[in-house]
Each structure stands twice: as C-alpha cells, then as structure tokens.
Amino acid sequence: MMAQQTRSRRLGTFPFFRIGMFAWAMIGMGLVGCKKTSSPPVEAPPLPAVSVVYPAYAPLEWTVRQPGSIEAFEETPIVPKIAGYVQKWNVDIGDRVKKGEVLAQLWVPDLVADLNQKTVEVQQARQTLAVAESHLASAAAAVAEAQAGLMRARANLAFWQKHFQRICKLDNSVIDQQVKEETRNQLQAAEAGVKEAEAKVARAEADRQESEAIRNKDRVDVAVAEAARDKMQTLVNYATLTAPFDGVVTQRNLNTGDFVQPPAGPATAPLYVLHRRDVVRVFVDVPESDAVWIKDGAAARVRVPILQDREFEGKIRRLSYSLKRQTRTLRAEIDLPNPDDLLRSGMYAYATIQVERSNTLTLPASAVFTQGDVNEGYQDFCFLWDNGKVRRTPIKIGLRGEGRVEVLKKRGPAGWEDFTGTEKVVESGIASLSDGQEVLLVASEK
Prior knowledge:
CATH 2.40.50.100
C-alpha cells in the first residue's frame, strides 16, 4: 500500500513540474527577446577637430639667461717704477680717492741729486749756445763788411778800366807815355784790390759758416741736456704715486720706511689696488648655441640676488668674438652705472639678455613635439593635414624662441626638403593624434 501511495504521488506531481519548467523557460525567452529589441544602435566616435597654420616668416625672439660676475670697470694695481723708500703714504683700504690725488711719496735722494746735476748741465749748454750765437752774429757782420769792401774794389776797378780806355784812344803825341803807364799800374792795382776783396768775402763767409755750425751743435747740446734733465725729472716724478682715476682703494701693501722697487714678476704684490666704482662690468659667458646671435647693444637685465633680487637695466657693450675652448662659451660684457655704490666687484649676478633674429621661417611652439630617448636620440615632428587626415612628419628645427620655433627641413618622399610655406600644420592638440588619423578641419590660419 505504501508503494502504491508513493507511485500515485509521483504521478500527481510530475505534470505540474514540467508545466512550471516550461513556464520559466518561456518567461526567460521573453525577457531575452525584449532586451535585444530595446538596445540602441552603436554610433562611431566623433572625429577630433583640429586647426592648422602655415609656416610664416617672422622675427624670432628669445632670452638667454646665464649667471654672471660683477667686476670693477677698471682695476689698476699701483706699482713703483723706481726703487726708493716709502717716505709717506696717504690713503688706506676703503678710502675714496680722486684722479691725481697723491697716494704715497717715495724718498729717492740719488735721483734728486742727478736731477740737480742735469739742470746745471742744461744751464751750461745754454750759455755756450749764447756765446756761439754771438760769434755767429760777428761772423755775419764780417761777411757784410767784406762784401762792402768788394763792392768798393769793383767800383774802383771799373773807374780805372774806363780811364785807361780813354788814355789808350788818345794820340801818343798828346799823352805822355809815363802817364799811360801809371794809369795801367792803377788799373792793375784795382784788379788786385778786387781779388783781395773777394778773398776777404770768402774768408768771412767761411768764418760765418763755422760759427753757424758751432751754433747748431750747441743747440743740439742744449736739446740733449734738456732731454737728459727731463728724463731724470720723469724718474723723480715716479717717486710720487697718484691715483689714475676716481675710485676706491681695495688693497694697501706698504708702510713708512719700506724699501720698494719695480716688480720682478707677476707674483710681486702691488703697493695699492684701485677700483673704479662709478661704472661696473658684468661678465656673462654665453653658450655656443646662442653666441652667434648675441650683438653689441642687445638689451639686458641684471638681477643681483644679494640685493633682494634687485634688477638693473643695461646693454651688451663688448663681445670677445672668439669662444673659450674649454667651455665653448662667448664672453659678453654689460656696463651698469653704479651711482649709489651698491654694486661691488666680486658680486654674483644673473643676466637675462634679449636676443632677436629677424626674417626666419617659424611655426608655433605648440605645433612641434619631440620624441626619443638618450640612447636612440631625439627627433622633432609635426602633423601635416592632407585631405582630411594628418600625417606625422619628421622635421629639423633651429632656434626656439618665445612661443615660436624655427623650422629648417621636413622629411618628404625623396628625403629632406625645405619648407615652402604652403604646408598646413596642425597647430595644437597634437598629443592625442596618431599618424594617418582622420580629423575634422575647423580653422585654417595664414
């Protein structure tokens, strides 16, 4: 009976089990069918919008920022020209001096004695010259006197020549032969007188020339004596050490009674060192990449950290032209007025130099990007727009300015090519682009 009940129970429950399973299956199929019919269609992502620019010729401006050092506009060591003893020193370190002010006085008695001797020799030479001038004047007067005697002798000769000619024309019966002979003798005496007068003129002229030569020699002797005296005076003047310009004393290495002498080498310490302080120089070493573009007169700003980052305006005044081999840098000098005496030699400074290169082909800096690493090297790229797609193109760039980059070459099918200025270059947002990607052109700027 138990077996019969169990069988009837199984038969009674089985149909209901199958009906339930079928119902659940139909419900699941309905849900699946409803889900498929209600999902929206899949849409393609929108194209990235880009704007393009053309390479353009424009001035390229950038700044060179380099540390520098402030130095005195002039730094002069004061050294003795002659040997002597320090008689007196007048200034010490930190003292402000004026041009020509006496810094120290040396005692050189031997040079002073030599100077006195040379002065006496000059006076002696001048007196000798005065005597020679007097002799020359006497010789010139003698020449004049001799020339006057020659003129009288010639006049006398002319008289007797005419008188003798008249006598010769007269008849011998009229004129006595003795008178004729006496006239001939007078004529001959007149001729001799002329020759004697000419000899006196020649002798007087020779005496004058001799006196003139002596006078000229004495003049030279005076000039030599004066030169020797002036030379000795110069040496004595070296005993007085003066300031070559307005400045400040930064070193003093002498005391009263010290024996000093001209330096024998660079290791010899100077007696004084003077710095000019109204203007200072700022020395800046410009890197090789910027050296060729730095010009005289370029504007510069100098910041001095120790003065609470105070800035001073100046200009490039001098360039060394050649680069240092060790550092490959160009030495540039900036002059700064120093009326308040705030800038001191040896101070650290930081210079900002404004540089400009005109008429060069450039792109915005946002249109250029660089890829690579230290091992494989770096390459610059830009994206060129071409019929709705962008093409990543290797390029060669030059200088980088403030917001713009100089472009030199682009990689084309045949190799490196020049930019023509007609290329459409994606201006910004290039980090999210890829080579060959389709884009939407929204702006084009010449």
